[in-house]
Amino acid sequence: MWSDFNKANHEAMITAELFSWPVTLAIMVLAFGSLVAAGPPLLLTVAGLVASAGGYGRWPSGSCWPSASCSSRR
User: Fold this and answer.
1) Cα separation, 23 vs 40, whole angstroms
2) Could you check whether the bond before residue 66 is cis, i.e. omega within 30 degrees of 0?
3) Cβ distance 65 to 59 under 8 Å?
4) Rounded to two decimals, what is the model's pTM?
5) Share of the chain above pLDDT 90, in %
6) Residue 49: which H helix or E strand, with range?
């Protein structure tokens, strides 16, 4: 049951992303006046998402960084 939900949710998220990025780009071009000015905020957003997704799950489960509870484990 949950696998069906997760699959449907994933497909809905991908579809929403495919439609929202061009709309966001168009609004930002209108707001900033040019594609060159609208590009860096979108590129920084993508870079932040990639960086946060890339670091997700890389720390070993015994690691206490970045949580502040390291002193309580010792």
Assistant:
1) 16
2) yes
3) yes
4) 0.51
5) 15
6) helix 35-55
List all residues 6 or more positions away from 5 whose beta carbon is below 8 Å from its beta carbon: none
Higher pLDDT, 59 or 45: 45
d(CA 9, CA 59): 27
Nearest to 24 by CA among 45, 4, 9: 45
Task: Find the mean pLDDT for residues 10-24.
Answer: 85
Q: Is 74 helix (H, G, I), strand (E, B) or coil?
A: coil
Answer yes or no: are the C-beta atoms of 42 and 25 closer than 8 Å.
yes
Look at the block and give the residue holding tokens 């998402």: 49
